[in-house]
Design a protein that fits this description.
Blueprint (H helix, E strand, L loop, with lengths): L13 H14 L22 H11 L5 E8 L11 E4 L2 E2 L3 E8 L2 E11 L2 E8 L13 E4 L8 E5 L2 H6 L6 E8 L3 E8 L4 E13 L8 H4 L5
Antiparallel strand pairs: 1-2, 1-11, 2-4, 3-4, 4-5, 5-6, 6-7, 8-9, 9-10, 10-11
């Protein structure tokens, strides 16, 4: 729409210009795109893809519940094959979900899933029995680099994790949430074929376990 020439010479024209611009913006919605043209992908203000938003919501639905799991893939000498594995979606905040993993009486592990400006992050918080961070093995993990799916997100190892263990350069961790079916955690290291996968049955919640080691000092939330 051409703008009348007198709009450039009168300050009273500015409200009219704003009104015209508003009409143009309203008219240019997805319905006016040429046939066969897809609208640009919309992302949330937090930077999560639509798939990640659904994944996060599905994870939130498990808050407060605990589930027993079984190893599906692991090295032959791993104690995960025989141990009682229980995950507990214990602390749910607006931007962080903490999931302790209990391996028999070992309460040292917590998976920490965080919303970031660019997607999702998975970190591993390892504690000693006195509650202090494990000085040799904690805070490793990575960030998503792809939108993922509503049921699965992958986290390639970040620089900190690779610096601690160079073999992680070809490694990613993954989380899966299949509502009313299973929650899965695992990793794949392409360099040597190392694989872990443990699945937790979401149809059979179990009694919530004790707090993980160091929870009062490090979980950022309450029971």
């Amino acid at each position: 729409m051409p703008i009348p020439r007198h709009f450039h010479t009168s300050s009273a024209a500015f409200p009219a210009l704003i009104l015209i611009a508003g009409f143009v913006l309203i008219a240019c919605d997805d319905r006016d795109l040429p046939d066969g043209t897809e609208p640009p992908e919309r992302v949330t203000a937090e930077g999560l893809s639509p798939e990640q938003e659904v994944f996060w919501e599905n994870l939130e639905e498990l808050c407060g519940q605990a589930f027993r799991g079984e190893a599906r893939e692991a090295p032959e000498d791993s104690n995960w094959w025989e141990a009682e594995l229980v995950m507990h979606v214990r602390v749910c905040g607006d931007d962080e979900i903490r999931i302790p993993l209990h391996v028999d009486d070992d309460r040292s592990r917590t998976w920490v899933v965080t919303r970031t400006d660019a997607g999702l992050r998975l970190k591993h918080d390892h504690r000693l029995e006195d509650g202090t961070p494990d000085p040799t093995n904690t805070d490793y993990g990575g960030d998503t680099t792809e939108p993922g799916s509503e049921t699965r997100q992958e986290f390639p190892a970040d620089a900190y994790s690779i610096d601690a263990v160079p073999g992680r350069a070809t490694q990613h961790w993954f989380l899966e949430v299949h509502p009313e079916e299973i929650f899965a955690y695992g990793l794949v290291r392409e360099e040597n074929g190392l694989r872990y996968r443990v699945e937790f049955d979401l149809n059979e919640p179990v009694e919530t376990p004790p707090a993980p080691w160091g929870a009062d000092a490090g979980d950022g939330g309450s029971e």
